[in-house]
Amino acid sequence: MTDWLPLSPAERSVAIEVLVHGPLSRTELARRLNLSQGSLTRLTKPLIESGLLVEAPWAGAPAEARQGRPSQPLGVVAESRSFLGFKITDEMVYGVVTSLRSDIVARLDRPLTGHDPEYVADLLAAMTAELAGRHPAVAGIGIGVGGFVREYAVVGESPYLSWRDVPLAGLVRERTGLPVVVENDVAALVEAETWFGAGRGLDRFVVLTIGAGIGYGLVLGGRRVPCAEEDRGFGRHWIIDPQGPLTPQGERGSAVSLLTIPSIRYQVRAATGRDASYEEILAAAAAREPMAARVIGEAGRALGTLLAQIANFVMPQKILLAGEGVGLMEVAGDAVRDMIRTHRHPLAAPINLETKVSDFHDWARGAAVLAIQVLVLGRTGG
To answer: Cis omega (within 30 of 0) on the bond before 117?
Structure first.
């Protein structure tokens, strides 16, 4: 297959529409993009010649899409290219291989025994070689990092890795020869959910993640809103209860102090002298053990308050609650819903809340979507 060509803005709009919402008949595609049939034909010709789009029978197409070339469906060959996504934590690197539609087809994880950038780049290159050996036609690499990232290439600051100004994309590209894009891990997850997940087709969409930290992503007009303060303490300074707990990770009564897994574990340990896992604390709270129930109940009320505040100010069509900490909803869901009602107008529409327990492979998939966007949007990293 020939290499994909650089795309014009109009060609990109066609490619994205088919990639995210296809297969689509030409009639439907022209309607969605407000194009004439002639303009659509002109735009799709190079996309078909380059192999990005394909004309193929679609068994599920409506009758009008099977009658004549003007309505012949256009789709992408999802397996025509593979993309690698990596999520870096302070202890592990989680890797996935995805199709062009971001479906995970393979996983590979490796322990991270050091944080030296050269060592991390070597590990990513070794994982790339192993995955590419089993899944050829790799078109690009996406890397998600907890921290502030500049220009899809340089990790400006990562407290988890103790990095400043690390040109990670360039280091990995030197070792692999592949296009590499690096982004904040929450931003990557938001992009994946916007294109292929819970936010697909929505104009106003919010992702809130709870786990080791608090993550927030906003989509307006169907596009993620970038922020210069991304992952620089959003949750530390969002004060929910000024009289709330003080923990090492956040300001007193902040979203971080009330909701993150390390803070919840810290509160229980400080009160009982025992170190318990997050899962053990949730189980104890469900069993009405007093200290665990108090901490988890407070976290549930904090989450409900936070969700209500987001809904009041952003008015999203949907909020996706994700991350490894969303098991909180199973134990403290009633407290969450009570606080939403308390902080919302009685006539306000119910919040469309979707919860998703995300493991680190979901975060890695988000990074792979960044690589897909490099292809379709023409973004550049390393």
So the answer is: no
Cβ proximity of 379 and 141 under 8 Å: no
Q: Are 192 and 102 in contact (CB under 8 A)?
A: yes
**Rounded-to-integer distance, Cα 373 and Cα 382, Å:** 14
d(CA 16, CA 42): 16
Lowest-confidence pick of 12-16, 149-153, 231-235: 231-235
Boundaries of CATH 1.10.10.10 in the chain?
Answer: 9-76
Structure tokens at 147: 């921290």
The token pair at 312 is: 């009041």
203-316+325-358 to CATH, choices 3.30.70.380, 3.90.870.10, 1.10.10.10, 3.30.420.40: 3.30.420.40
In the block, tokens 């303060």 appear at: 229
Please provide the DSSP assignment of 77-118 as one string.
-GGGSEEEEEEE-SSEEEEEEE-TT--EEEEEEEE-----HH
The whole-number average pLDDT for the span 29-37 is 90
